[in-house]
Design a protein that fits this description.
Chains A, B: Keywords: Carbohydrate metabolism, Isomerase. Two copies of one chain form a homodimer. With 276 residues, chain A is of the alpha/beta class. In chain A, 44% of the residues lie in helices and 17% in strands. The A-B interface holds A 106, 111-113, 117, 144-146, 148-150, 154-156, 158-159, 182-186, 206, 208-210, 212-214, 224-227 and B 106, 111-113, 117, 144-146, 148-150, 154-156, 158-159, 182-186, 206, 208-210, 212-214, 224-227.
C-alpha cells in the first residue's frame, strides 16, 4: 500500500457524516488525521470529540474555522473576537496548532473593501497573542476572488502574508489551498515567501463549467484544471511536511456514499497529488 | 442634462441588438461612442458598419475582441495570430486605437498554466509591432480568476503590465475592467503603474449571489459590491481621460428592453460611476 500518512479528510468532504461517523470512516479508510469543523464538534461536545479522536488514534490536522472579522458594528466585531477566542481554545484542546481563518466578506451594503481588509488586520492583532498563549497558529486562508464579496476579503497569499509577517510565525500562518490560489501569477514566489508559515496545505480541484452554486464549486482532485503535483513541489520546497487535507464542497460529492468518496479521494491523492 | 460625453455602450450590454440597431439605440440615448464586437460587425461587413457609425456621428471606443493565444498546436496558434492581425486591421478601419485582448484559457486537458501564460507572451511579441504599424494598441484584459481556466489566463493587472511594459505604450496597453479587477489587493498600486497604458476603462458590477451561469454573472452598476467612483478616481489619477464603457453579460439585462437598459445605464453612470 502506498503511503497515505499525510492524507487528511477535512470533514466538509463528507458533509453528511456526523463527527463520530467521520472518525469511524477515517479509521476504516486507514487514514491517520482529520480536519474538524466547529459545528459538528459542537453537536457532540469537545470532551466527547476529543475522546473519540484519541481512541481512534487520529491526529487533528486543523480546526475549521475562525474568522469573520469584517463587521463594522463594534459589538458585532467584539462578539467575533470572543468567538475566535473560543475557537482557539477548542483547537488547543483538540491538539491541533492550526485554526483556519475564513476572514469574512464585505458587510451588508458596504462597498469599502480596503476598510474590510483593515478590520481583518485589526482583528488579527487582537487574536494573535491569544493564539500564541494557547499554542495555536491562526491560519489565514486567502480565498479565491470569487468569494471576496461574501466570504473572505483576503484574496491572495501575498496579502495574507502581509498580515502574517507582522507576528511571530507560531502565532500567525497561512493556508495554501489549491482551489483558492491556483490562478495566482505570484503563486510560486508567494509560496516560497511563506516558508515557515504554512499552517495547512489543502487540495481540491477547480472544475468547469463552474457549478451553479459557486459555494459548491469545488471538485475532486483530477476532475479539473489544477496541477497538484506542482503545488506539492512548491510547499515542499518551502519546507512544509505537514498534512495534506482534502476539503471538497460539492453537491455531487456530498450526495455520494461517503466511504466511496474516501476511496476515490485516496486513489486520486496517490495518482495526482503525490504521484509523479 | 449631466455630462454623458465619456459614456460608451459596449454592444454586449444590448446583446440582442444587431450593430445597426445598437448604433440607432446609442443615437436615441444621446451617447457618442460605442464598443463594437467582431461577430455582429462581420454580419453587416466592415464598410457598411463604418458608414453607419460615421453617419451616426459615433466614436468607436473599442473593438472586442482579439486574443485566444494559448493553443499548444502550432497551426492553431498561427491561425490565432492571423485572426488577430485581421482584428487589428478592423480596429484601424473603425478608427479605434483599442483592440481588447481576451487572451484565452487553458487548452483542453492541459493543467500547464505557466505554459499557457508563456504562449500569450509569445503571441503578443508577434502582434505588437503589427498593431503599432496600424496605429492600434493591443489592450490586454486581465480577467477575474473565475475565468482563468476557460477564458483568460492573465488574472491580474500586474501580470498584464509585466507583458505590456516590454513594448512601447502605443503598441500594448491594458484594460481596467472593474468587474475583473475590483478584488485585487494591489489594485491601487497597479492602476498607478498603468499610467500611460490604460487603453480602456470598463464598468459593470460584481453581484451576489453569483448567477448560475458564471459567464453571465455581471451586474448593472449599483446592483453589486463595487465602488466605481473609487475606480474612476484611480484611473483619473493615472491620467486616463478616455471613454467609460459599460459591458454587461447578464441574462436579465439581455432579456430586458434594450432602450430601457440604456436609460438605466445612463442613470447609474451618473449616480454611481461619475457621481459624488
Amino acid at each position: 500500500m502506498s503511503d497515505l500518512s499525510r492524507l487528511s479528510l477535512n470533514q466538509k468532504t463528507t458533509n453528511r457524516w456526523s463527527l463520530p461517523e467521520a472518525i469511524d470512516g477515517c479509521v476504516r479508510a486507514g487514514l491517520s488525521s482529520i480536519g474538524v469543523w466547529r459545528e459538528p464538534l459542537a453537536e457532540i461536545g469537545l470532551d466527547t470529540a476529543k475522546r473519540l479522536i484519541d481512541d481512534a488514534g487520529l491526529r487533528v490536522s486543523s480546526l475549521c474555522r475562525g474568522g469573520f472579522l469584517t463587521a463594522t458594528d463594534n459589538s458585532e466585531f467584539d462578539a467575533a473576537i470572543a468567538d475566535n477566542i473560543e475557537a482557539i481554545k477548542e483547537a488547543a484542546a483538540l491538539g491541533t496548532t492550526c485554526l483556519v481563518m475564513v476572514v469574512g466578506g464585505l458587510p451588508e451594503g458596504s462597498r469599502d473593501l480596503p476598510g474590510a481588509r483593515a478590520r481583518v488586520s485589526d482583528g488579527i492583532a487582537r487574536l494573535a497573542p491569544v493564539a500564541g498563549d494557547h499554542g495555536v497558529q491562526l491560519a489565514l486562508e486567502p480565498m479565491h476572488p470569487i468569494f471576496t464579496a461574501d466570504r473572505g476579503v483576503l484574496a491572495t497569499l501575498g496579502e495574507a502574508l502581509d498580515i502574517a509577517e507582522q507576528y511571530p510565525a507560531e502565532q500567525v500562518g497561512v493556508v495554501v489551498d489549491s482551489f483558492h490560489v491556483w490562478w495566482d501569477p505570484q503563486l510560486e514566489s508567494q509560496v516560497a515567501r511563506a516558508a515557515g508559515r504554512i499552517s495547512s496545505f489543502q487540495v481540491c480541484d477547480w472544475i468547469t463549467p463552474l457549478p451553479a452554486d459557486s459555494l459548491l464549486s469545488r471538485g475532486m482532485m483530477g476532475d479539473g484544471h489544477i496541477d497538484f503535483r506542482h503545488h506539492l513541489d512548491l510547499v515542499t520546497a518551502a519546507g512544509y511536511t505537514g498534512d495534506i487535507e482534502v476539503e471538497i464542497f460539492n453537491a455531487d460529492v456530498w450526495a455520494a456514499d461517503p466511504d466511496q468518496v474516501l476511496a476515490t479521494m485516496k486513489q486520486r491523492y496517490l495518482d495526482v497529488v503525490v504521484g509523479v
